[in-house]
Records
---
Amino acid sequence: QTFSDIERGWVQVNKEQLRQLKSLQEKDSKKEFIQLAQTLKYYGYLKFEPCITDFPEKGCQVIVSAGNNELNFQVKLPNEQMKEGSFKVTRMRCWRVTSSVSVRPLYAGCSR
């Protein structure tokens, strides 16, 4: 799962961390592997499907992820530049994501 998330770009890792993870996997060092993986940026976060926003500019693509008591966003600006931001979440018990446009179901059999 960790390597799959890294390949998808969901977890950020540098070359040295990737080398260490592969080495630990080859040695079957599960505890050390998990300890290292837990230090990686966005490890264990829930990542949502990309969406379009009108902030900071109309038509920007944004990816939202939640984990480790924070809500993160990565915005792709029209000039292809990426911007990141984070909001600490300490008192949220329940939350909801809504859409202002019609959304088709992601899975067969889903209804809205």
---
Amino acid sequence: MFSDWRQLPLATDALQMGELAWRGIIAWDKTEGARAPHKGYFKHQCEYIVWGTKGPCHKAEHAGPYPGCYRFPVKQTDKFHLAGKPTPLMEQLVTIVPVGGIILDPFTGSGTLPKAAQNMGRNFIAIEKTSVYAQVAMERVESTPVPVYLQ
């Protein structure tokens, strides 16, 4: 779950209230192009990824160790939603799930995580309540040829 600094405590609480085991926080550095609220303040250059598991955390024997901080700029050509994330960032994040594994995205927005999961050979369950964005997500996923991964 992505969160900025203001909602980080609430995000970690929500994860645990959902009966998930809180496993940690990963920083996403949006690079120097991130916005600053105004002069005299620090830039809001990072978002945080709160992650957890349902049940025990099985080691990702297929890959890793994974970085605790990712650095990807926001590119407007890859942003289809106000809270859109870079596809290359999401492709890196989904690699913790084994090829053929399932990723749940309960706030899919414009479908960046499903697209990244598809690109990386992972399955996904995507949920989006806003019909306009659900349609964008479906179009993005349908426009990507399904790759074949052999183990």
---
Amino acid sequence: MPEAAELGLRDRFGARGYYLHILGYHEGSLREDEVAEELEKVRMYIEDVEKLLEARKGA
């Protein structure tokens, strides 16, 4: 799916997993503001995926 590659979805997903799951959950090394920033990135990621799915549905 070229659109997913253009949006960098795989890399973005991996980054969120690392920051939130590894650094946040396992290591507990993220500050509250860093968690909020990462969660905002998750929100933007979800919005991009939703737009991609809507575009594919309409095609």
